[in-house]
Design brief:
Elements (H helix, E strand, L loop, with lengths): L2 H24 L6 H23 L5 H17 L6 H7 L2 H7 L5 H26 L1
Helix pairs in contact: 1-2, 2-3, 2-6, 3-6
Organism: Chitinophaga nivalis
InterPro entries: DUF2809
Protein name: DUF2809 domain-containing protein
Length: about 130
Amino acid sequence: MTPAKKRLLYFILVLCNIPLGLATRWSPQYFPEIVQVYGGDVFSATCIFFGIRFLYPAKPLRCIALINYIVCIAIELQQLYRAPWIVHLRDKTPVGILLGHGFLWSDCICYAVGTLIAWAIGWTIERAYKK
């Protein structure tokens, strides 16, 4: 698969992922309870993975997975910083979606699950195109 085709594929995956992740936050009543509670963080991790893969289509998937998990953990850790200016910034909807609101250990597990799911999707699709 050429880098251009990979980029297109992962761009489409990002576009499909965003509404699913937002739906778990804005219309949670349509999802099972476990997805209501943890789905947004899992979808966030998959979206970041697909975005990183879009930017770096030639890197091995395992590198993308590692980078993805580190980025997700960094985003989670920055939530421990509680200066008034950043708390005010996080209260704005788009920024709050990107940066989150409060540190939770469970989010770190959700990011690991999301990373593994995204890696499996990427591996499966890229493997299928090799044949």
